[in-house]
Amino acid sequence: MPELPEVETVRRILDEQLKGDVIQSVDIRYQSIVKSDQDEFTTKLVNQTIDGFSRMGKYLIMNLDYYDVIIHLRMEGKFFIKHHEEISSHEHIIFHLKSGKELRYHDVRKFGTMHLKTKETTFSTYPLNALGKEPEAITEVEFYQKIKHKKATIKSILLDQHVISGLGNIYADETLFAAKIHPTRLGCNITNEESNSILHAAKHILYEAVLLGGTTIRSYTSQLGVTGLFQTKLNVHLKKGKPCPVCHHEIQKIRVAGRGTYVCESCQT
DNA sequence: CCCGTGCCCTGGCGGC
DNA sequence: TGCCGCCAGGGCACGG
Length: 269
Hints:
There is one protein chain. The chain is of the alpha+beta class. It has six helices and ten strands. The strands form three sheets. It has a four-stranded antiparallel β-sheet with strand order 1-6-7-5. A four-stranded antiparallel β-sheet has the order 2-3-4-8, with helices on one face. The longest helix is centred in the last third of the chain and has 25 residues, at 192-216. The structure holds a DNA duplex.
């Protein structure tokens, strides 16, 4: 599922491939992905030039002349750039561009979302208005202040995009493993030093993952943003029953905040 | 404030 | 082999 590094990889490719292109028309083939008025979505985007793509946390933003389209890929959303190939049943939104390219939003589970915003309201309205800072942008002090009074588990805090944005289930597990913190620890029981360590781990892991995503993309003709390479760096996530790379104890899968959570019960305390 | 649950959705998998 | 039922998960609404 796309978390910050995967979304960043998609952003870079789309930015490179589509900047300067102009939207000719938009087809909405499955409606509930578009959360704004459907008619406005298809009419207002016509003749808008793509200034580029930006990103906030896991949100991808298509920057146009007068509008921004705020996109969340959720679990399985991905983009393809095609020309006139047959349309797959999983391609739900199609942006026809004047260059002849078609930007196609593909989402098997149909969980992704798109919001149309006028530029003045992009950051002041839902969904971006309440988004927390990314690990790279938040300070140690800010982060500790945000978690120190919480009675929630640290895992659920890391997944809460209003606290800190960009981490999903995979990178949250990896972050806590790197920081040697057990996912069921409560925010209010995390020390200042541990808080710093979690933040440092999150930054480091996201940074490495973005680098790997960048190196993996060689062909722009296949589906965009699928790296596959970061999986080789995982220490605990999806490693149930495998030995911990540090202490060789068996990795456990537990349930925290309703999410499958991988942990080394020996290293993480 | 926080938690669990359900919802959205469908491919894939385990069980029989 | 085939079918059924359940799980996965990001984010939010809801009730406790």
